[in-house]
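Onboarding guide, step 5: your first structure request.
Type a short instruction followed by the sequence, for example:

Predict the 3D structure of this protein.
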Amino acid sequence: MTTAVITGISGQQQTAIAEAFRDAGWTVRGTSRRPGPNVAAAALETGDGLAEVFRGASVVVFTLPQDHRQGVVPRMAANVARAAADAGAGRIVLNTAGRIERGSPLAVYAALAAAADTVLAGPVPAVVLEPTVFMDNLLAPWSLPGILSGTLAYPAARDTRIAWLSHRSLAAAAVAAATADVAGRSIAIGGPEALSGTELAEAVGAHLGRPVGYAEVPLAGFAAGLNAAFGPPAGDRIAELYAHLAAHPDALADGAAGMADLGVAPESFAAFVARNAWSAAS
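The system replies with structure tokens like these:
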């Protein structure tokens, strides 16, 4: 019997990943701060309880959390790698939840790179998935009301092209990475097309049957809002990623080749738009 253990299983990305493994016929267990049926309490930051949860796992799928405290994310990765080895897990799939720019002086990229390198260097065969930006973010409470009012706002220039990826496609990539002959690799993944902000807004507007414009969110205000919601330095660190994107507008324009290596056809933005309600209750 193939068993997948999903860390932080209640998160949005992790929920989609767990569902995809179940649909593929896997037994799924998870970790969470709120234990329940097939979900155990375990601490990524200390490693407490991880080995017990990982025991018998064919694959451990570890999604990096948004934690910007110095050294915390690499420490979590080391704890997962150690616990997976102690438990005899068959493979680790690390979802970095964002692209890595190796050699960048930015602290957020250094933390992601350190986490990926730790997992890949460990004794358990590992695959790292580096996604672009998630389509599902547009349905979040901080995005959807504006879209329904006629403005899709995002902290990127309107002509910057991004290969947006849905959680559903990320999940399909994670399932594929669990068994494909890609161990030891860090794979950039993204959607099938690189779309500008204007094209995103037009696609949503066409679905809604009314005009939707695009507005670039100033990074200073973007950072301040995230700091207020999640505490500093989260907003500052995430804003740094978009400042990097402004200086390197092609940084998130790819990913289809990585999906092809996994044998996964990513969902198009048009398909994503069509299968969602785009209402206040979404």
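Each response can be followed by summary notes, for example: The mean pLDDT is 95.
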